């Protein structure tokens, strides 16, 4: 495969079939994937090849080689194809009150609730 096969119509059709077929749970972190988010969103759905297509082009269209993943989790794995060990989730806390924050938020919106 000389050009990037992800840009072909055939792959777009394959990816959409897999999106419908696969569970909406990220195989890397185990969390649910919101299908309403864009594939460009860090928490959006992407098709992850367990054995990277760069090193295993023969498995590119093999459904057994594909899993659902968040975009950020898929990028974290990269072409190495290795799944990181599950780490305990670190809770982010507000520097003002110590309350738990949602992902990618450094402070509460508006005044601190405490």
Q: How many beta-strand elements?
A: 2
Give helix and strand order, one letter per element, not per position.
HEEH
Q: Report the total helices.
A: 2
Percentage of residues in DSSP E strands: 5-15%
Structural class: alpha+beta
Sheet of most strands: 2 strands, antiparallel
Spans where pLDDT lies below 50 across 5 or more residues: 84-88, 104-108
- Average pLDDT works out at 78
- Overall tally of structural domains: 2
- First-to-last CA distance: 57 Å
- Which term fits the overall shape? elongated
Largest sheet strand order: 1-2
Radius of gyration: 17 Å
Helical fraction equals 10-25%
GO molecular function, one term: endonuclease activity
Protein name: HNH nuclease domain-containing protein
Domain HNH nuclease: 14-75
Organism: Nocardia flavorosea
Question: What is the element layout, followed by pairings?
Answer:
Blueprint: H1 9-21, E1 45-49, E2 66-70, H2 71-77
What descriptors fit this protein?
HNH_nuc; 2 strands; two-stranded antiparallel sheet; 114 residues; HNH; alpha+beta; zinc ion binding; single chain
